[in-house]
Amino acid sequence: MDFVRVIKHSNDLEKFIDIPEGLKNRKVEIIILPYTDQEDIEQGKKKSLRGALSKYKNEFLQNQESDAWSKNVVDKYENR
Using an 8 Å Cβ cutoff, are 30 and 12 in contact? Predict the structure, then answer.
């Protein structure tokens, strides 16, 4: 990644950017990095996984999902 790092007197920068009082009349380090919009990065990475596991779908088991936990608890702890 290309970048620029320069040491300058803050008075030279007052024409371009607002300098906080604590940095006026001092040497400052300027680092220039390429701007990357985080939104653009996230949009490029987002991919939908919808339907990715559809080949494993079992409609018979889907109907049993609502009471699967309670049945499992009964099976496991019924005789304790």
Answer: no
Name residue, tokens 């080949």.
Answer: 55
Average pLDDT over residues 10-28: 92
For the chain, the first-to-last Cα distance in angstroms comes to: 64
The per-residue pLDDT for range 37-70, each reduced to its tens digit, is 777 666 666 677 888 888 888 888 888 888 888 8
How many C-alpha atoms does 54 have within 13 Å on its Cβ side?
Answer: 4
Dihedral, 13, 14, 19, 24 alpha carbons, nearest 10: 90
Q: Coil, strand or helix: which one is 2?
A: coil
Q: Which two tokens stand for residue 79?
A: 């005789």
Q: 32 to each of 5, 6, 72, how far by Cα in Å? A: 7, 9, 60
Residue type (1 letter), 49: L
Output the six-digit token pair for 55: 């080949």
